[in-house]
Amino acid sequence: MFVTATEGTSPLLACLCRMLLGLWLVIAPGLGMAVEVPVTPKKILIFGGNGFMGTRTSELLIDAGHDLTLVNRGNWYWDSAFTVKPYTRHITCDRAQAIEKCLKLEEFLNNSEGLDAVIDFSAYHPQYMEDALSLLTGKVGLYIYISTDSVYEVCEKNHTEPSLETDAVRPSSPDRQAELEATDSYGHYKLACEEVLARHRREGSGPPYISLRLPDVVGPRDSTYRWWIYQLWMRLRHFLEKDVIVPAKVLNQPISLAYVEDVAQTIFQLVQSRNKYESSYSPEGPPLDQAYNLALHETPTLYELLKDIRHELNLTDSITIKTDGGHETIKLYPSVHAGPMNISKAVKLLGWSPTNYSTVVKDTVEFYEKAISTVHFDDPRRYMIRTMQTYFTSKPYDVIRGLGEVYQVYFGQRRDEL
Ligand SMILES: *[C@@H]1O[C@H](CO)[C@@H](O)[C@H](O)[C@H]1NC(C)=O
Ligand SMILES: *[C@@H]1O[C@H](CO)[C@@H](O)[C@H](O)[C@H]1NC(C)=O
Ligand SMILES: *[C@@H]1O[C@H](CO)[C@@H](O)[C@H](O)[C@H]1NC(C)=O
Ligand SMILES: *[C@@H]1O[C@H](CO)[C@@H](O)[C@H](O)[C@H]1NC(C)=O
Ligand SMILES: *[C@@H]1O[C@H](CO)[C@@H](O)[C@H](O)[C@H]1NC(C)=O
Predict the structure, then answer these.
(1) Which ligand sits closest to the CA of 137?
(2) 169 ligand 2 Cβ < 6 A
(3) Which of 10, 27, 167, 332 fits a 20 to 30 Å CA distance from 180?
(4) What is the mean pLDDT of the chain?
(5) pLDDT for 157-170, tens place per residue?
(6) What are phi and psi of 367, to 5 degrees?
(7) Closest Cα to residue 88, out of 100, 103, 76?
């Protein structure tokens, strides 16, 4: 079903509004702070840079005056078309295709003397990493790879504590390896990417690197929409058919989460501290060529997280969260079985100091409460409405009615598609 926003604004006004908002969003972060423009802007190549973590990271780097080249398929998520795209060089490239097809990237690299840093948000297959490294040999000061806690899914911990970086070792038995790969191909491929980086480095051709292993990341502009789905589910509960449910099997499972702002700030700091023409970090810099777990200190269960979102929405007395759904299992967190991560290494060596959990919940809820009535988030809003209509009720119009009553935003059915 198609749903379109009709909020009483003319298309022209809406368009103007978007432009102004885009400008404001770019300028605003710099207004209050004395941002020091570096003497020499750093040259940074970003694979991705238009998604959830990438957009926020790009914004920080743009604000600091760096020279960004983004390589991606050209989908601009949320408002990245306004806050990122105009301030960066863009190369359209689909990494699922052979790298030879990406002539623009090759040409760009042929003509560039070197890159201070590469930030890779989009390597999901070892071939993507091989391709990138084949073009980048000898040209990169630091390669920051955005990895995942799913790598622990294809390894076998010999303890039951939170996962340590050293736990990412595949089992020695090839049969067992294959078995685990089959259960989590995402984790398998992401670990394979880390392994490619490490091998190139060992063999002397690869750049210095850092892999950041991230759990489920939360915060504004999540392009997986998971948090927002839970939030809107609770907000519209009385207009939907499905109960809010936590599946019994994850009831007591603690979850590692990371906050998008903390992740972006950490990547930003890593890039700031690196210069292609320095032979190494200053002694107090973090050790390179390794992986770091990043997550919040707190590890709530899904039940606790939903209760905290509900509390922030002032719905504690009116919405019930059920803890046994029978066969009904909508479960969006966590995406792993291996449990939370131990972050003591990043705390000690990267100065990782994440935002506290209650602030994360408060700020994230606040963002999505506003997002539903933000005109320039039209695509995400439509996606959310379709999701509610498809999975949470058999009466699509109730979703529209609920949005009107709860948020005073009015969406009309499009009538010109007969
Ligand atoms: C890049 O440089 C290599 C080596 O000089 C050359 O073979 C290749 O054609 C160049 N690629 C492009 C797209 O200019
Ligand atoms: C557990 O695994 C780690 C990493 O694979 C290894 O260094 C350690 O010796 C193992 N400990 C035991 C008790 O087997
Ligand atoms: C919840 O209540 C507080 C205090 O009355 C208010 O400031 C806040 O905006 C409310 N939140 C929502 C989502 O309604
Ligand atoms: C994390 O690992 C460190 C170092 O191995 C250990 O001292 C600490 O107790 C662990 N923390 C948790 C919460 O498991
Ligand atoms: C979390 O951080 C906020 C802002 O820094 C602070 O006001 C609040 O007291 C902290 N909450 C907890 C539980 O530490």
Answers:
(1) 1
(2) yes
(3) 332
(4) 88
(5) 989 999 999 999 99
(6) -60, -50
(7) 76
Q: 3-class SS at 226? A: helix
The tokens 């993507």 sit on which residue?
128
**Could you give the C-alpha distances from 263 to 21, 55, 136, in angstroms and in order?**
24, 12, 24
Amino acid at 236: L
Q: Single out the residue of 292, 316, 285, 297 nearest to residue 259, CA to CA.
A: 297
By CB neighbour count within 10 A (0-12 exposed, 13-18 middle, 19+ buried), where does 347 fall? middle
Whole-number Å distance, alpha carbon 371 to ligand 3 midpoint, is: 16
Q: Are 146 and 120 in contact (CB under 8 A)?
A: yes
Check whether 108 has a pLDDT greater than 90: yes
**Residues enclosing ligand 3, CB less than 6 A?**
313-314, 369
Distance (Å, whole) CA 408 – CA 418: 28
Looking at ligand 4, which atom is closest to the CA of residue 343? 1
Q: What is the gyration radius of the CA atoms in the chain, in angstroms?
A: 22
Helices (H), 209-257: 226-235
pTM of the model: 0.88
Structure token digits, residue 418? 């007969």
Extract the tokens encoding 412.
Answer: 């009309």
pLDDT above 70 coverage of the chain, percent: 85
Ligand 2 neighbourhood includes 158 CB (under 6 angstroms) = yes
Which ligand 4 atom sits closest to the C-alpha of 342?
1
Q: What is the pLDDT of residues 11-58, one digit of tens each?
A: 333 333 333 333 333 334 444 445 554 457 999 999 999 999 999 999
User: How far apart are alpha carbons 297 and 288 in whole angstroms?
Assistant: 23
Please give the structure tokens belonging to residue 95.
Answer: 């990494």
Half-sphere exposure of 2 (CA within 13 A, CB side): 7
Type of residue at 3: V
**How many whole angstroms separate alpha carbon 216 and alpha carbon 295?**
9
- Closest Cα partner for 306 from 355, 373, 235? 235
CA of 336 to the centre of ligand 4 (A): 20
Positive or negative, the Cα torsion across 21, 24, 28, 30? positive
The pair of structure tokens assigned to 25 is 């969003």
Rounded Cα distance between 313 and 407, Å, is 12
